[in-house]
Amino acid sequence: MTIAFFSILLVLVLSAISVAASSPNRNGSDTDLATLLAFKAQFSDPLGVLAGNWTTSTSFCHWVGIRCSRRRQRVTALSLPDTPLYGPITPHLGNLSFLSVLSLNNTNITGSIPHDLGRLHRLEFLRLGYNGLSDSIPPTIGNLSRLQVLDLKLNLLSGSIPLELRNLYNLAYINLMKNSISGSIPTDMFNNTPMLTYLNFANNSLSGSIPSCVGSLPLLRNLIMHYNHLTGLVPPSIFNMSKLQGIYLTHNYLTGSFPTNASFNLPMLQIIAIGQNNFTSHVPLGLASCQYLKVISFSLNSFEGVVPTWLGKLTRLIWLAMGENGLFGSIPRAP
Ligand SMILES: *[C@@H]1O[C@H](CO)[C@@H](O)[C@H](O)[C@H]1NC(C)=O
Ligand SMILES: *[C@@H]1O[C@H](CO)[C@@H](O)[C@H](O)[C@H]1NC(C)=O
Ligand SMILES: *[C@@H]1O[C@H](CO)[C@@H](O)[C@H](O)[C@H]1NC(C)=O
Ligand SMILES: *[C@@H]1O[C@H](CO)[C@@H](O)[C@H](O)[C@H]1NC(C)=O
Ligand SMILES: *[C@@H]1O[C@H](CO)[C@@H](O)[C@H](O)[C@H]1NC(C)=O
Ligand SMILES: *[C@@H]1O[C@H](CO)[C@@H](O)[C@H](O)[C@H]1NC(C)=O
Ligand SMILES: *[C@@H]1O[C@H](CO)[C@@H](O)[C@H](O)[C@H]1NC(C)=O
Ligand SMILES: *[C@@H]1O[C@H](CO)[C@@H](O)[C@H](O)[C@H]1NC(C)=O
Ligand SMILES: *[C@@H]1O[C@H](CO)[C@@H](O)[C@H](O)[C@H]1NC(C)=O
Ligand SMILES: *[C@@H]1O[C@H](CO)[C@@H](O)[C@H](O)[C@H]1NC(C)=O
Question: Which GO molecular-function terms appear in the entry (predicted)?
Fold first, then answer.
């Protein structure tokens, strides 16, 4: 009776041990290891950076480009900027559930951005700029509610800007410069992104108008949308932003005149580059109160009237381009 009881117990204990030993995913740390090996396996890695270092003889927390959490053996950062990897990002990367930094800037990665990255709900920094990534930005990126930096500049991305990006409440920096992104900017894209300080959509194929919600971003310092196909009026709210330092809208199809100086309040403005559009009417008087102004670039528009004398009072001005407009009069002297 007792012997039978103990042998049953022994069998149970032994089988529990063997299940533990053979299970491929005993804990999250094993999932991270399997994920990193799947990530590595996709790359040709011509300099052997991963081949020589990412070996199972050492804990992955000591691998080049990996940072782990202190308490658990979980990957919190995967950062290999400027490392030639050559190949696609495996969708398995979505399994690194503790990841907060993913930085693969300038690594010659190709293929599309996996939808699975939208599962990295702790992600704060996503830097994939200077690569050969193609296809459209997956809407699942909008699920990354802790994301602060979204840097996808200089890739081959196409399609339109996903509506879902409006859910990135913590976004401080977005850079989509120099891709082939088309379509219009979602009208309510910036209704819930109050932390945004830097917005760069330059050198794409965006059309439609600039949404007026851009003008209600309280911390925005740089608005960069040059070299697109944007049309219509610039929302007046953009000329009433207390932190704005740079407006870059060169080479679009923008029209209209500027608000009168009663509703023109850009106290921090340093650079206004709006050449190669079709702005009309007078050079906005509101600029006269922008004491930090360094660059005014207004060439190739339809501005009219006399070149204003107050330009001579902008003591920090180092660049003034106003050619190819309907302006006349003499160039004002500095005081
Ligand atoms: C998870 O498994 C790894 C070995 O694969 C081990 O080093 C680590 O201590 C385990 N962590 C926990 C919390 O059990
Ligand atoms: C991998 O790289 C890290 C960081 O450069 C280094 O500390 C570690 O010794 C390397 N491991 C191997 C096995 O080369
Ligand atoms: C990891 O992610 C891939 C793709 O998203 C999925 O198919 C796979 O089941 C996951 N593996 C683990 C161990 O969670
Ligand atoms: C990304 O890589 C490029 C090329 O090496 C470099 O110029 C740029 O400063 C890097 N950007 C970031 C944010 O690391
Ligand atoms: C690798 O990336 C660099 C920087 O983006 C780029 O200059 C180079 O042409 C790329 N190489 C290939 C073979 O695509
Ligand atoms: C992630 O985003 C997709 C597409 O926007 C959505 O269908 C899905 O429900 C989201 N998942 C979670 C867990 O929020
Ligand atoms: C954007 O396009 C203009 C005109 O083609 C070009 O001069 C500029 O270098 C481009 N910017 C980048 C970052 O490629
Ligand atoms: C308009 O601008 C001029 C020149 O800076 C300034 O003297 C004037 O007070 C401004 N008027 C209003 C209503 O802001
Ligand atoms: C300018 O912005 C301030 C603060 O956001 C707001 O109170 C004010 O009504 C705005 N003025 C105009 C003319 O839009
Ligand atoms: C620019 O606007 C003016 C006035 O609205 C118009 O006469 C002109 O045809 C426009 N020019 C271009 C190139 O669109």
Answer: ATP binding; signaling receptor activity
Q: How far is the CA of 74 from the centre of ligand 1 (A)?
A: 9
User: Is 70 exceeded by the pLDDT of residue 250?
Assistant: yes
- Mind giving me the DSSP string for 179-246? S--EEEPPTTTTTT-TT--EEE--SSEEEEPPPGGGGG-TT--EEE--SSEEEEEPPGGGGB-TT--E
For the CA of 128, the nearest ligand: 4
Global pTM value: 0.90
pLDDT, position 26: 59
Domains of the chain: 28-181 (3.80.10.10), 226-334 (3.80.10.10)
Tokens representing 333? 């002297």
Ligand in closest contact with the CA of 259: 9
* Index of the ligand 1 atom closest to the CA of residue 59: 7
Residues across the chain? 335
* C-alpha span between 63 and 306 (Å, rounded): 65
C-beta 135 within 6 A of ligand 1 = no
**Cβ–ligand 7 contact at 153 (below 6 Å):** no
Q: What is the pLDDT of residue 10?
A: 42
What residue owns the CA closest to ligand 2's atom 7? Answer: 62
